[in-house]
Design brief:
The complex is a heterotrimer of chains A (312), B (293) and C (369). By secondary structure, chain A is mainly alpha-helical. Chain A has twelve helices and two strands. Chain A has one domain: MetI-like (MetI-like fold), CATH 1.10.3720.10. In chain A, strands 1-2 form a two-stranded antiparallel ribbon. In chain A, helix 2 packs across helix 12. Chain A is flat. The two termini of chain A are 17 Å apart. With 293 residues, chain B is mainly alpha-helical. Chain B has two domains: 71 residues, no CATH class; 208 residues, MetI-like (MetI-like fold), CATH 1.10.3720.10. Helices cover 70% and strands 0% of the residues of chain B. Chain B contains 15 helices and no strands. Chain C has a six-stranded mixed beta sheet with strand order 6-7-8-3-9-10, sandwiched between helices. Classes of the chains: A mainly alpha (312), B mainly alpha (293), C alpha+beta (369). Chains in contact: A-B, A-C, B-C. At the A-B interface, helix 1, helix 3, helix 4, helix 5 and helix 7 of A face helix 2, helix 4, helix 5, helix 6 and helix 9 of B.
């Protein structure tokens, strides 16, 4: 990393070593001055909680939420290997698979549609990007209307397609799909924006070169567009997976984890255990589990996928 | 006379060639695809708007109405009336405002330190900063909640804002930008006797306006849309943010669904306004990590 | 057959006319240079041949077929871009193989062609590398290699040397000439550098504001520029111009410009007699000016001038002179070495005068062959 510095000229001319030492000290002083707010905040709200979560996992909680007996790794073992955690793992993985790949495919598709040089294209670009302005709460409320079993548009469409009035959010087989649909829509704006920026960074010359070389539209897409987009694809996949694992809001609003726990993702389970059942011990174990999971997944994805990514 | 005919003939031939080469059909197909996609994307927002304008009886209609024949504009003030939306907006505004300003300040200072000050352990400290990106909020909610509780900060603005005043993403973004400031500028400032703070305020920050704007928009977006944390630390209806207040509507007057939808639209307005007016900065902030520019 | 013909080709970009009624035939296996300042339309013209732009009007013919509606990939051309446009994620080998893969050329044939081209261009050791790991000159050769393996009827090159440093440019120029001889294929080469044009082209086509000014062999463009623009664009230092008035009778005409008298020969006088007005623009190249003796005044054009600046190149001096109202540039022998402020007498070789119509800028032909 080529980093440049600018040391203010020392006011008094001092012999070399002392002057340098003084400058270093001065820099350290300023460094501390400029960095202490961030360090304090990170320490208090990021690192300390992480350690404390691990610590809380060692203790059972009583029904009032107070710290109970020390049980060591037993609680870790029983929770992480337990069926409830495995269930929420499965749901979370399913949710991720239902939301991340479709968001990538659709986002890329929308971005390619929006990347054409047509009059009025900027209006379409704004529309495609518009869901980035919707929060989880707003999106969930909007989709509540659409998914309403008696009057919703989605219900009506399904009815036309031959499916009798499905109460999606209350059907254990479909609830996760409905929540996923909401999430995909929510994330589509962001995905489109990111992919559009990626597409626009591909030099026009490469496309012209491919045109002369005789590449078909598919060939150009496979051999020029995709490779040049690979850093963006990696970014979206990694960040998308992380965000999917951290989802909470739409489940809280739409299904409250049900029906039959079929939408109970990990974070929802943590929240429920901690703030509905006051079982801080179990919830902390789950939280630590989530942390390791997300960290591990990210590392695996980076390792595995980065080899296929081409950087300029 | 002859030349004029020739010229006309050339034009006819050229137009014909143009048509053959680029049939209008192909353009029509593209616009069709665009409009279809736009319709699907807009559908939820559109239906919400329609429902917000429907009278009470109409919202239980099936098939669902696609256009309000008798728009009840009164639903909007009703929403503001029946639900303390204004108060929620105020809380969200304060929360978001403080977080945005706080993040700009802390990350500017931190980025300056990392970009311009050479001190022992700087690289290590920077890596530690970046590592906070790996610890999601959801993982630390329980101890953070307990901290807030012990400080007596439940149902206060402090709880909504203080934990989020520092940002590793913002620090990273600004540091990248600060490092592009030419050394000559710093040397000149040093010769002119500028101290660090003065240099930061008078030179570095003005040169970084676009990045700062992008960061501000990004921070605004994340802060305004927060859900889990405000849910935890606010119970008092007076302290609820827009997101939580909106979700709480679900439990209320279910038969006044149209009013709920009106409320949803009102809650969504500020962010849509942001998108329309600050689209450039927004896009830049969001794509900072994804695309090499 | 790989001749290329522009038949009254015009290209509009909105209000801007990039190519203006261009008619030009490029012969089979010719090395033709499209020369002109930036924005003169030469790159646009090239792109129209390639099929990357469609002409607003006019016809493009490659070989013996009209290609206006033919896709770029089917025109049997290859293009070398100014910034090479190599696929950054592919190795040199794959870059060169790409077009053949798209055409489903058999892999053995592909391999053969790549090896041959790599050998010609000295790229054998670089085949596995990616473009990011290559120098500018190497990338340029890969771009050439990519074009060669396509075995096209026409090579199109858009300022391929401008991103190279000076020394490399000279070396690559010579290699390109040799390459052309070897491949015996039509080359259309776009540049703004007149040195490249003069050294490489078999013919040069000069464009200005989208319109063709002159197309001829380099020596002809130099000796008999078709108008003032071509005369001033070709040749360095540039040609000197004087505005003059004609005096006297047809056989004893003198063109007088404020401070200089140009006694004209009979042939010159006859040619100039056709002028409607009595004004003429006279041009003389710097190398046709020398230091003169007062005694020779009679039948030479003489001019008193003061030395302004002297740039000594070792083999010659490039001197800028000024007199009452004009600046004159001359290329003189290294000795006698002149000094700033010196007063000298300049002598023009009157048989090397160029005459142009002051209204149209066009060359006035005299009766010398």
């Amino acid at each position: 990393m080529a980093v440049t510095t600018g040391e203010p000229v020392p006011r008094l001319p001092l012999p070399g070593l002392v002057a340098r030492g003084l400058t270093q000290l001065k820099n350290l002083g300023f460094g501390v001055l400029f960095l202490w707010p961030s360090i304090l905040l990170f320490g208090a709200f990021v690192f300390y909680p992480l350690i404390k979560s691990v610590y809380l996992g060692f203790y059972e909680s009583d029904p009032l939420g107070n710290r109970g007996d020390f049980v060591g790794f037993d609680q870790y073992r029983s929770v992480l290997a337990g069926s409830a955690f495995r269930h929420s793992l499965r749901i979370t993985f399913q949710f991720t698979m239902y939301t991340v790949p479709p968001a990538i495919v659709l986002g890329l598709g929308l971005a390619m549609l929006a990347n054409q040089k047509l009059p009025g294209i900027s209006i379409f670009r704004t529309i495609f990007a518009s869901t980035v302005a919707t929060s989880v709460a707003v999106a969930s409320m909007m989709w509540l209307t659409l998914l309403n079993p008696t009057t919703g548009l989605v219900t009506w469409i399904l009815d036309q397609l031959g499916q009798p009035r499905l109460n999606l959010l209350n059907d254990p087989d479909w609830a996760l799909v409905a929540v996923s649909l909401t999430t995909i829509w929510l994330n589509l704006g962001l995905a489109t924006i990111v992919f559009l920026a990626g597409l626009q960074s591909i030099p026009e010359r490469l496309y012209e070169s491919a045109r002369i070389d005789g590449a078909s539209r598919l060939g150009t897409f496979l051999h020029v567009t995709l490779p040049m987009l690979s850093p963006t694809l990696l970014f979206v996949t990694v960040i998308g997976t992380i965000l999917a694992f951290e989802s909470f809001g739409q489940i809280h609003i739409l299904t409250r984890g049900g029906p039959l726990d079929e939408t109970k993702v990990i974070v929802y389970s943590i929240w429920e255990n901690a703030f509905q059942r006051f079982d801080y011990g179990v919830a902390s174990v789950q939280a630590v589990g989530l942390f390791i999971l997300v960290l591990g997944l990210t590392v695996i994805q980076l390792r595995f996928l980065e080899r296929r990514v081409f950087y300029q | 006379m002859a030349t004029r005919i020739e010229a006309l003939a050339t034009k006819v031939v050229t137009v014909e060639r143009a048509v053959r080469r680029r049939p209008w059909g192909r353009y029509a197909l593209r616009y069709l695809a665009l409009m279809l996609a736009a319709a699907v994307i807009i559908a939820p927002i559109y239906m919400t708007a329609v429902n917000a304008l429907l009278p009470k009886q109409a919202i239980v209609a099936y098939p669902p109405k696609l256009f309000p024949s008798d728009p009840q504009w009164g639903n909007f003030p009703k929403a503001l009336d029946q639900v303390p939306l204004a108060r929620y907006m105020l809380n969200s505004t304060i929360q978001t405002g403080v977080i945005v300003v706080g993040q700009l300040v802390t990350s500017s200072l931190a980025a300056y330190a990392f970009a311009f000050l050479r001190f022992p352990g700087r690289s290590l400290l920077f890596i530690i900063f970046l590592s906070t990106l790996m610890v999601p909020l959801e993982v630390s909610i329980i101890p953070n909640f307990q901290t807030i509780q012990q400080l007596g900060w439940l149902d206060t603005y402090q709880a909504l804002t203080i934990p989020f005043l520092a940002t590793a993403f913002g620090t990273f973004l600004l540091r990248q930008h600060f490092m592009t400031i030419p050394k000559e500028l710093r040397d000149a400032a040093a010769i002119d006797g500028y101290g660090h703070l003065r240099f930061l305020w008078s030179v570095v920050l003005p040169l970084s306006r676009p990045v700062l704007a992008s960061l501000a928009v990004f921070a605004f977006l994340s802060a305004w849309n927060q859900y889990l944390w405000p849910l935890l630390v606010t119970n008092d209806d007076n302290m609820r943010t827009v997101q939580i207040g909106l979700a709480a509507l679900r439990g209320r007057e279910i038969d006044s669904f149209n009013v709920v939808m009106a409320g949803t639209l009102i809650a969504a307005m500020p962010m849509f306004a942001m998108l329309v007016f600050f689209q450039g900065q927004l896009v830049r902030g969001l794509t900072a990590g994804a695309v090499k520019r | 057959m790989s001749r290329v013909v522009f038949d009254r080709v015009t290209k509009h970009f909105g209000e801007v006319v990039a190519v203006d009624d261009l008619s030009l035939e490029i012969y089979d296996q010719e090395f033709l240079v499209l020369l002109g300042p930036s924005g003169c339309g030469k790159s646009t013209a090239l792109r129209i041949v390639a099929g990357l732009e469609d002409p607003t009007r006019g016809t493009i013919i490659i070989g013996d077929r009209v290609v206006n509606n033919v896709e770029a990939k089917s025109r049997d051309i290859a293009m070398v871009f100014q910034d090479y446009a190599l696929y950054p994620h592919m190795s040199v080998y794959d870059n060169m193989a790409f077009s053949m893969r798209m055409r489903h050329v058999h892999h053995r044939e592909r391999h053969q062609r790549i090896l041959e081209a790599a050998h010609t261009l000295g790229l054998e050791t670089l085949l596995r590398r990616k473009p990011a790991a290559l120098s500018g000159g190497q990338r340029q050769r890969v771009a050439l290699g990519r074009a060669i393996v396509r075995q096209p009827s026409v090579f199109l090159m858009d300022e391929p040397l401008s991103n190279l440093d000076a020394k490399l440019r000279v070396q690559t120029r010579r290699e390109l000439i040799k390459l052309h001889r070897r491949l015996q294929t039509t080359f259309i080469y776009v540049t703004h550098d007149q040195v490249e044009a003069m050294t490489m082209g078999e013919r040069i086509a000069i464009l200005k504001d989208g319109a063709l000014q002159q197309v001829a062999r380099p020596q002809d463009v130099y000796d008999r520029p078709a108008n003032v623009f071509v005369a001033s664009f070709i040749g360095s230092p540039a040609m000197n111009f004087f505005q003059a008035e004609l005096e006297g009778q047809t056989d004893r005409l003198v063109a007088r410009s404020d401070s200089v008298e140009f006694p004209l020969s009979a042939a010159q006088g006859q040619a100039l007699a056709k002028l409607p007005a009595r004004n003429v623009t006279i041009g003389i190249r710097p190398e046709h000016i020398s230091l003169g003796e007062p005694s020779a005044k009679a039948d030479h054009c003489m001019l008193a001038a003061v030395v302004d600046t002297v740039e000594s190149l070792g083999s010659e001096q490039q001197v800028t002179f000024s007199n009452a109202d004009s600046t004159i540039q001359a290329r003189l022998d290294p000795s006698p070495a002149l000094r700033e402020g010196e007063q000298v007498l300049l002598m023009f070789a009157c048989e090397h005068l160029h005459f142009f119509n002051p209204e149209t800028g066009l060359r006035i032909e005299d009766q010398r062959g």
